[in-house]
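Figure 2 data, in text form.
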Amino acid sequence: MKNRDIDLAALPRWPAAFNQVPKWVFEDADVFELELDRVFRGPLWHPVAHDAELPNVGDYKTIKIGRTPLLVIRGDDGQVRAFHNACTHRSTKLAMAFRGHSGDIECPYHRWVFDTRGQLRACPGEAEFPPDFKRADYNLAQLRCESFTGLWLVSLNANPPPLLEWMGDLAQPVRDALGTDGRLTLLGYQKVRYQSNWKVYIDNDAFHAPLLHAAFRMLRWQGGSGSQRRLPQGHMMILSELDAQPTDGGLLRDPSVIGYLGGDAPRNKSPGQAAGSSLLAFWPLTAIANHLDIFNIRYANPVGLDEVEVHYAYFAHADDAADLARHRLRQSSNMIGPSGFVSLEDATVFLRIQQALETEPGTTFFLKGWHEGADLARTKQNDEAPNALWWEHYRQVMSFERATS
């Protein structure tokens, strides 16, 4: 399905300066329509589920990529598949729950029944259908779906690149961030809708953390060494170290919530080093975040021009003892969730950016770490200038022409 044609020549030119982004790109309705086609239905992969979310035959999850609703289900053969969440008869949405368990999948409108492999098994009134009707022609529409370390990724495009080629150098950090073997168990979710364009959400930089977030100052987490990388495919990774025994300065009733128990945190460290921390962002949106003992996948999707929905999924390792799993749960939800004390202020800033777009100057700027000739692919942990590489990838995907001066 394609969006209506959009006259790119009618849009303002992209700024000539590499470290600037035009504000119109966050609020133009035609741009959003074009993004749904070129970005979200483009030749790339979107993380949609982890094995831990679908542990049993018949377990399913619903999720959206752009405006396209998907049904991700583990079939009776143990295989995970992704389908368009719509009956192939009259396009009625099938599964309404976020997660559930099903044998056969029945459409409520005309009672067509599909099995967990997406095959049409029954359709009332079939004797009066056209003579050339074949059930096999009406199986659920299936998408390309591949797994990496238990993480399932889907493409809406008929010709995505090979998955490992698309992941590039992000593959090994993702493997590490999923416990190296992907054997996770689901702890739960937190869901939020941010009142901003999806690009405001993903444009969040590492520079702001100790400046915006009070917890970084109050808990004295402003330091720390690390690095930031941007990959040609548009992906981002921030790998850093944290104090293995962080202090709360006497501010927390229960300081154990920020403790590091040495579980399978991201292994961007050598034995004996401080605890690891990583933020790995797939192009264009979904990310994996690890902080101390946390396993977190953030599935994100634009709801509209000025709203983005994020599902924070939290995990333990399958081999965790009960006390470590409980610690991971407490640390996850209290520390880095949408209302966690480390990230509490983000939602307000996203909204305030969205509310201030109709202002001058008409561009935003990346300054920290920026100078002509800078290698933005490899920078310090807390630089903001590498965000310009994400935007350059976006500009090229969207075919926006850059001004010459």
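Caption note: The chain has two domains: 46-160, 169-392.
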